[in-house]
Design brief:
It contains 2 helices and 3 strands; from the N terminus they run E-E-E-H-H. The chain is α+β, with helices and mostly antiparallel strands. The chain has one domain.
Length: 80
């Protein structure tokens, strides 16, 4: 998956290259093939905050955003 930041637009889209098998402590699997695209507009402050948090966790920004969104979605669904 490739993560592009253009201005204050965050673009996530699949990469055509194969990924190595790497699973993080949180169980986020970096090897699965990503075929969907996700876009979000963020402020410069949000982009800096997300990038800093990702770096502190040892994730790329893409991995951090996807893992965080997936966790939030799972929790929201569980709550219903």
């Amino acid at each position: 998956m490739v993560f592009l930041i253009v201005g204050t637009t965050v673009i996530v889209h699949p990469s055509n290259s194969s990924a190595n098998v790497i699973t993080t402590e949180s169980g986020f699997d970096r090897r699965s093939r990503k075929e969907e695209r996700l876009e979000a507009r963020v402020t410069p402050e949000q982009k800096k905050l997300i990038a800093r948090a990702a770096a502190l966790r040892g994730f790329s920004v893409t991995e951090f955003v996807v893992a965080s969104a997936q966790q939030a979605a799972s929790e929201a669904i569980t709550d219903f």
